[in-house]
Amino acid sequence: MATEVVTMPQLGESVTEGTINEWLKQVGDTVEKYESLLEVATDKVNAEVPAPIGGKIARILVDPGATVPIGTPICEIEVEGEPANDDAASDVPAAGASEDSPPAKASEVAPTVPSSSAAGSLERGRFSPAVRRLAQERGIDPTQITGTGAGGRVTRNDILQAATPATAPAPVSEPTAKPVPSTSEAARVAMDAVPAVIEDGDRVESLSSVRKVIAERMVRSKQTVPHAWLMVEVDVSGLVALRERMKDEFKSREGISLTYLPFMMRAVVEGLRAVPVMNAQWNGDSVVLKKRINIGMAAATDRGLIVPVVKDADQKNVVGLAKATQDLVQRARSGRLSMEDLSGGTFTVDNTGAVGTVLTYPVINAPEVGIVTMESIVKRPVVVGDMIAVRSMVNVCLSFDHRVVDGADAGKFLRVVKKNLESIGPETSLYA
Fold this sequence. Notes:
Layout: E1 2-7, E2 17-23, E3 30-31, E4 36-41, E5 46-50, E6 55-60, E7 67-69, E8 73-79, H1 86-91, H2 116-125, H3 129-138, H4 156-162, H5 183-191, H6 209-224, E9 227-235, H7 237-254, H8 261-274, E10 280-282, E11 287-289, E12 295-297, E13 299-301, E14 304-306, E15 309-310, H9 318-333, E16 347-350, E17 370-374, E18 378-384, E19 387-401, H10 407-422
Parallel strand pairs: 12-16, 16-17
Antiparallel strand pairs: 1-8, 2-4, 2-7, 3-6, 4-5, 6-8, 9-19, 10-11, 12-15, 13-14, 17-19, 18-19
Helix pairs in contact: 5-6, 8-9, 8-10
Protein name: Dihydrolipoamide acetyltransferase component of pyruvate dehydrogenase complex
EC number: 2.3.1.-
Enzyme class: transferase
């Protein structure tokens, strides 16, 4: 049997690391090629990672909960072929591997008596980079902790439990100040806020890997992106009348419900066409004006908030957008999205009105430069000409990156969205 090393795969553009959420196969299990091997959480979503080859799981090198860079060895699979050199592979890392590469589990390595210098290296290797970093920040010696992980390995939870509330993080020297926090720094800030006061009767629930990623991403966005905000009121009485007239026929003909979201997306497409700088991404010392219009749509699931992407939204009519959005929402809630479904977004739309809100301040999905919300449609009296009339009104809210977009362009974008929505009437075609 030959042994093949499986590494953390690239799970989307701009993704540099992943957190192993759960191993779906264990040591000794047989796995087919392309069968789900493990579940990984990134800063975009949870995804099941298929096995690149078929065989038997020989070793798992990274415990659940550990965060490792793309390309890090995470497990070994025995496959049919030439016999593996067990003596060379069991304890010696591959040439060029850094000392931070995740080691084999202690329970799966034959006992040896290392020299004193080798013992120090082995001691370092017992702990994942995330555990060593957290131990250093909390001022804790991980060698003094009894691990609860597989093979007796020390986990992040072990470090956190060993740290009392009074323990202050050990100072970490920073050779150079960085204007933009790294992923690990953003994660530390997200997790190390002012501690809660826990009293008798309170219930403490550990964060899921998805919630940790959401926390990190939101902190990083608010720390690095100068958010600005605008809102307009839109009279959508004509849109409401159209949907009321068409919803039953549409359901019968297309097999899906007719919601307000595809109309909002069409209006946003027109706004992005009129103001191309809104369809852009921040790139450090440059701005990338995107050719394609790919609309991300925030979707709430029982596993957390994710943002699947409707590709080439400008090439779809209302019916096409309705089908695309419903398909993405259904697959998001059943956990069947691919990384392709979650990448490539150039602007984000959030239908916050579905939960009853009338005014929100959304957080930008960086590196995009804008996100818009459609709030609840409510009937209220408004002035029409010189008379007061009851109209169906909705607030449309926009957060934008002020490094890229000025207020004038943001205002123009919202005016185009407003004009498009208000132009819809009972006879508007859904297929145009």
